[in-house]
Amino acid sequence: MNQAGSMIDPFGRAITYLRVSVTDRCDFRCVYCMAEDMHFLPKKDLLSLEELERLCAVFIEKGVRRLRLTGGEPLVRKNIMHLVRQLSRHLQTGALDELTLTTNGSQLARFAAELADCGVKRINVSLDTLDAEKFRAITRWGVFDKVMQGIEAAQAAGLKIKLNTVALKGFNEDEIPEMLRWAHGRGMDLTVIETMPMGEIDADRTDQYLPLSELRARLERQFTLTDIPYKTGGPARYVEVMETAGRLGFITPLTHNFCESCNRVRLTCTGTLYMCLGQEDAADLRAPLRSSEGNDLVSNAIDEAIGRKPKGHDFVIDRTTKRPAVSRHMSVTGG
Ligand code: SAM
Ligand code: SF4
Predict the structure, then answer these.
(1) For domain 17-333, is the CATH number 3.20.20.70?
(2) For each of the chain's 335 residues, which pLDDT tens digit applies?
(3) How far, CA to CA in Å, does 48 sit from each of 36, 43, 64, 75?
(4) Which of 13, 218, 272, 287 ranks highest by number of CB atoms within 10 Å?
(5) C-alpha 200 to ligand 1 mean position (Å)
(6) Residues within a 6 A CB radius of ligand 1
(7) Interacting residues of 76 by C-beta distance below 8 A, sequence separation 6+
């Protein structure tokens, strides 16, 4: 078994960041993320919250310093706050630097205060438009006002918010300046994301894909953007926007691959570990977890998996590439 703090992949990258998709289910059906009629992972294969906590603890012992809960929608998993509370103990011991989550905001009004009480300091909220009707169209099932209430509750509880916006051609490309002013005016950072070819959806991704190099050039006609070295542990590259005095992040898996600095792996709610968001290779941690009360087997399985973390993904979106780069949806591994 490796010593604590020594998960190093074949390319010398230290793995210090774990993202955990606590459920692949969701109360929205965003058109770029899911098909309307989704097939979810079988319920019988789900890890219990206790098992998820145990797996996270093994990762923390092996050097993970940041942990992000995601999904699907993490806040729709039953008793999710029990897991957050358990994980927050690692913040108190100093073993973990950060516990955070990515959410669609629909349940935040209910949970914001408790999240803050558990030591969560900042969260990512996904929001693709400020127009309630367009919001309904892009999420299929979401209610804009509930998300607004969630954001307000989170800010009232003292949580720092970063908004994540998927840049979609013909949908929100003209709205980004307004969203930028809106977010920065309320003390929130904004990050724009290129749509990634993950899972079959009902729409054609070539129609949705907007290269962020193009978006940035357009923004530069209205705003003064200055590159800054700010980092949050994720893949975004940031600029400071002079006119709004806030930060704007770009996540560009297609136009600028960021794999060389990848420090993360992803665990699903069934105990499958994906070493790269953009590759199919995975390792099963559920069997070693369940076959022994001790953690040696699972720790060895993690080492073996990290030992084959690939150099990077090879996402492509063009008219000649009809199939998604990976067959699973983003909601399985949680972005
Ligand atoms: N349900 C939560 C939410 O929406 O924030 C957490 C999970 S969601 C899969 C995480 C992030 O992935 C969201 O910001 C969402 O917009 C983004 N996302 C989903 N599908 C995507 C895709 N195909 N390409 C790029 N981003 C995607
Ligand atoms: Fe649900 Fe998030 Fe996917 Fe939207 S992006 S369908 S909120 S998991």
Answers:
(1) yes
(2) 444 557 999 999 999 999 999 999 999 999 989 998 899 999 999 999 999 999 999 999 999 999 999 999 999 999 999 999 999 999 999 999 999 999 999 999 999 999 999 999 999 999 999 999 999 999 999 999 999 999 999 999 999 999 999 999 999 999 999 999 999 999 999 999 998 877 787 877 778 889 899 999 999 999 999 999 998 878 899 999 999 999 999 998 776 667 888 899 999 999 999 998 888 889 999 999 999 999 999 999 999 999 999 888 766 666 666 566 677 777 777 66
(3) 27, 10, 21, 15
(4) 272
(5) 14
(6) 26, 32-33, 70-71, 73, 102-104, 126, 164, 166, 193, 195-196, 198, 330-331, 334-335
(7) 23, 25, 26, 27, 106, 107
d(CA 2, CA 299): 8
For the chain, what are the domain ranges?
Answer: 17-333
In which region does residue 246 sit, left (phi positive, over 0), alpha (psi from -120 to 50) or beta (all else)? beta
User: What is the C-alpha separation between 176 and 130, in angstroms, rounded?
Assistant: 10
Q: 226: exposed, middle or buried (C-beta count within 10 Å: 0-12, 13-18, 19+)?
A: exposed
Q: Which residue has the tokens 């490309």?
A: 173
SS3 label, residue 28: coil
Enumerate helices (H) and strands (E) in the chain, giving the number of each: 11, 12
How far does the centroid of ligand 1 lie from the alpha carbon of residue 35, in Å?
Answer: 13
User: Ligand 2 within 6 A of 28 CB?
Assistant: yes
Amino acid at residue number 219: L
Q: Chain centroid to CA 258: how far? A: 15
